[in-house]
Amino acid sequence: MKRYGFIFARGGSKGVPGKNIRPLGGVPLIAHAIRAGRDSGLLDRIIVSTDDPKIAAVAEEYGAEVPFMRPAELALDDAPEWLAWRHAVEAVDDFDLFVSLPCTAPLRIARDVRDCIELFERGGCDMVVTARPAERHPAFNMVTMSGDGYAAIAMPPSERINRRQDAPPIYDLTTVCYVTTPDFIRRHEGVFQGRVKAAIIPPERALDIDTELDFAFAQFLMERNQQKASKD
């Protein structure tokens, strides 16, 4: 079985400019995704899809392949990433398993990647995504706001809930890893159009970087992990 890892890293990030090659923990952000994929030991190739020559150069420096450049129209703010997935699938030779490792989850470890691949290969699904236990719950402490300013529970429960811990378990999707087949990407338009399983990732490895605050928090966690490792 040919398993290919893909990292999608466009150059036009606005929330955190230059995010994908910005240093984090001493190396560019994209390097963390490359290393996790490589260290999983299950990927035959790690391929980067980008429209930016600077990102391409950094990716190759850290051991990834950049066999094609992403078309500009697939790197716009409003371009669905699914189309970039489909472009990548068509741009490389035949393979069996598609594994996406977004740059935005730099605290993932190799085991998270292996767990997702192994969950998929046990069968029974078309896609594996990752999730973390949610800190808030729409049936207890999340609200909607009406036009005249009144708040209401987002998803009123059928029975009264006095504590968040008593609410049914709910999870936040993360960007740690996605696993599917090239054929599923060709035939469908989105993740949840098939049977989806989720690998649960601990919160300390499931941070998604979308803002400067996220980036600062990731730096803090990475430095804390490095200090802990040095003491051990």
From TrEMBL:
<keyword id="KW-0548">Nucleotidyltransferase</keyword>
<protein>
    <submittedName>
        <fullName>CMP-N,N'-diacetyllegionaminic acid synthase</fullName>
        <ecNumber>2.7.7.82</ecNumber>
    </submittedName>
</protein>
<dbReference type="InterPro" id="IPR050793">
    <property type="entry name" value="CMP-NeuNAc_synthase"/>
</dbReference>
<dbReference type="InterPro" id="IPR029044">
    <property type="entry name" value="Nucleotide-diphossugar_trans"/>
</dbReference>
<dbReference type="Pfam" id="PF02348">
    <property type="entry name" value="CTP_transf_3"/>
</dbReference>
<keyword id="KW-0808">Transferase</keyword>
<dbReference type="GO" id="GO:0008781">
    <property type="term" value="F:N-acylneuraminate cytidylyltransferase activity"/>
</dbReference>
<dbReference type="InterPro" id="IPR003329">
    <property type="entry name" value="Cytidylyl_trans"/>
</dbReference>
